[in-house]
Amino acid sequence: MSATKEFIPLSLCVLTVSDTRTAENDGSGDYLAAALAEAGHRLHERAIVRDDKYALRALVSRWIADEAVHGILVTGGTGFTGRDSTPEALLPLLDKEMPGFGELFRALSFEEIGTSTLQSRAFAGLANGTFLFALPGSTSACRTGWEKLIRAQLDARTQPCNLANLRPRLRER
Asked: Which of 20, 66, 159, 163 is deepest in the core (most CB within 10 A)?
């Protein structure tokens, strides 16, 4: 598999998981929406959902059932508090996990915040041919995840390979 020489814009959703964030103070969601647009992708839909695994699962299930959605960027709910439920809500929806994402995210995060990265349960995977990336709720964590991992993998020009070029084959049986 090789990368293409042309950029292929993807249609992405941004989901903020929080009991306290609103459209007025969602810095992490704002960052992700702006970053994907700056990279040339399209924002398909954006939402803020409280830390409730069934509400999260319902919205993400709707998005992964929509063939127009190529990927979902989730921020928040990946910690260890009693209300953090993003992994419990969304991991059951994945057809395939991408263990390297969480491992690399924590390694990169360790350089920035030291052992506090142990509290991150960031993860990624594939659900019904849709990429899903779950990041911590801080804007700096979203910046790390986007700039150092996600952006390049969603760019069809990244060599030697990238996730964007896999899209036509994701639903193979």
From this structure: 163
